[in-house]
Design goal:
single chain; about 525 residues; alpha/beta; Rossmann fold; 3 domains; six-stranded mixed sheet; about 35% helix; globular
Length: about 525
């Protein structure tokens, strides 16, 4: 199957609907993607993006009456794996699907090995072919390197390359590549490498359906944009030249949104959280005080040690020093999560799927696990009371759909993150530690999560927010500490606490010489080649 010519249709979807019981997830969706273009698909969590992609991937069937064409040719629904291979339709999901213990070469040719198109496994031949493909796309990777040793951006680019290289003799480049939030977990400085990779892919004739929550990224990378809202395609294939971030936000949520509505709590009390002599593998020393109602940000470039601080203060890392919460002294070297929880500490990790929730369990179990002793009676759990409380939490935190019986795997990323926040905030923590709390969620869910963070602070929690998002830090924090090369290089507060100033401090390491040469440009609007 050849690649669609530039301007030809790589994908055509007409009147596609999907119903789950009483819920209509998609309603008469139309979508056309032309050959060689980058077509962005955006929408809030629960808007139907994931359902649409699952139908295109054959994971789910559509309701009767829908039609789908790949490369101009109609296909039957549900889509079969053989049809996707025939039409060279490929998917790279947020978690990439790489096998960490295999090498770069083995991951690159995994499909061919599984399908038997490489009948004789010759590791030397695998590596030579991998080296040629890596060189063609400008990826400086060792084919023999185990994937678990790669950086996050190297893994993302490897997953994209695996999707677009020919699968066997007579095969061609992919006709359509679906990228489902491939940059969600990447720091801003690494995203440009993925943008460059996307540019190379489209230059070879492949069309890209690009799903992202980062609106600046969407406008800089894409040719056209479609917007899903509540299962309906409210914008279909609009040229990016006609759109602004404000326009996209209005289409996504149905009305204009403003972060200005967020108000930080007024700090009226003396600090009740004291960190003294904190030491981690990347950070030789840190002292920190946080008061009830205060939100303190911690940020820096990748590898600066921010994650080590957050985990060390919850007993999950290699930290030394002492932590006092409401006069209770904790030795960080021996601290464990159970003791941290008993001291009133809560920790929301960045990796939601692996560390934050159990995706196979229902919302009820996930939201109750931090308070299980309250539901024990005579050696059994009061399941009815747990379910009732979970239903109230789902309504409070606007989890959609608000069913406590659904497994978390059935929720969108933003709604799963709300469950994770509810799980910890129901404990009314005195010290709340957050790692990238809105990473990979849409603008609507982000606003709700940020409001819940400020509500927790208003109720007396001291908050430590670790984030790579300068805008979020500027909106929520009373002050921000910038780390670089193992030390605090800048403390920003008051009028100096702006997203531009935070980004500049991270990039310059607090150097006033470098800062004076840095222009005040908007953050995260790097233009990528198309």
């Amino acid at each position: 199957m050849g690649v669609p010519a530039s301007g030809a249709e790589a994908l055509s979807v007409h009147r596609l609907s999907k119903t789950f019981g009483p819920t209509r997830a998609l309603s008469d969706v139309d979508l056309v993607i032309e050959g060689s273009e980058v077509h962005a698909l955006v929408g809030h969590n629960g808007s139907g993006k994931s359902t649409l992609i699952k139908i295109l991937a054959g994971y789910q069937d559509a309701d009767p009456g829908a039609s789908v064409r790949f490369g101009g040719q109609p296909v039957d629904l549900p889509v079969q794996p053989s049809v996707l291979r025939q039409h060279r339709v490929r998917f790279v999901h947020q978690h990439l699907g790489l096998v960490e213990r295999l090498t770069v070469a083995e991951n690159l040719w995994l499909e061919q090995l599984a399908l038997g198109t490489r009948r004789r496994v010759d590791f030397g031949s695998l590596c030579r072919d991998a080296a040629q493909a890596l060189e063609e796309y400008g990826l400086p990777l060792d084919p023999r390197e185990p994937v678990h040793r790669l950086t996050a951006v190297q893994k993302a680019n490897l997953a994209i390359l695996r999707a677009v290289i020919p699968a066997g003799d007579g095969d061609t480049a992919a006709g359509l590549l679906v990228l489902d939030e491939p940059t969600a977990f990447l720091p801003p400085e690494d995203k440009r490498h993925v943008y460059e990779m996307v540019g190379q892919v489209t230059s070879r004739g492949t069309a890209v359906l690009f799903v992202s929550h980062f609106l600046d990224e969407v406008l800089s990378l894409s040719d056209r944009v479609s917007v899903l809202r509540d299962g309906q395609m409210v914008v279909s294939g609009a040229p990016v030249e006609l759109l602004s971030v404000h326009d996209l936000m209005r289409h996504i949520v149905g009305s204009a949104t403003s972060q200005a509505a967020l108000e930080r709590p007024v700090v009226r009390e003396a600090p009740h959280v004291h960190v003294r002599g904190l030491r981690t593998p990347s950070l030789p020393h840190l002292d920190l005080d946080i008061a009830p109602g205060e939100v303190v940000g911690l940020t820096g470039l990748l590898g600066c040690g921010v994650d080590e601080v957050a985990r060390g203060l919850f007993g999950g890392g290699q930290a030394r020093g002492h932590l006092d919460v409401d006069g209770r002294r904790l030795d960080l070297a021996s601290l464990r999560p159970a003791r941290a929880m008993a001291a009133g500490i809560a920790f929301v990790p960045a990796d939601r799927a692996r560390e934050g929730v159990c995706v196979t369990l229902p919302v009820t179990d996930n939201s109750s696990i931090t308070v299980l002793p309250a539901y024990r009676r005579a050696g059994a759990l009061r399941r009815r009371a747990m379910r009732s409380a979970a239903a109230r939490l789902a309504r409070t935190y606007a989890v959609h759909p608000p069913s406590p019986d659904l497994p978390v795997s059935a929720l969108s990323g933003g709604n799963a993150q709300k469950v994770l926040m509810a799980k910890w905030l129901r404990r009314a923590p005195r010290f709340l530690i957050l790692e990238e709390p809105t990473q990979g969620v849409d603008v609507g869910a982000r606003a709700q999560i940020e409001a819940s963070i400020l509500a927790a602070a208003a109720e007396g929690a001291g908050v430590l927010l670790t984030s790579s998002d300068p805008e979020q830090l500027a909106d929520l924090c009373h002050r921000v500490l910038v780390l670089s090369e193992g030390r605090v290089v800048e403390v920003l507060q008051g009028e100096s606490l702006t997203k531009h100033r935070i980004a500049q401090a991270c990039l310059t390491g607090g150097s006033t010489d470098l800062l004076s040469a840095t222009t005040d440009q908007p953050v995260g609007k790097e233009v990528a080649p198309r």
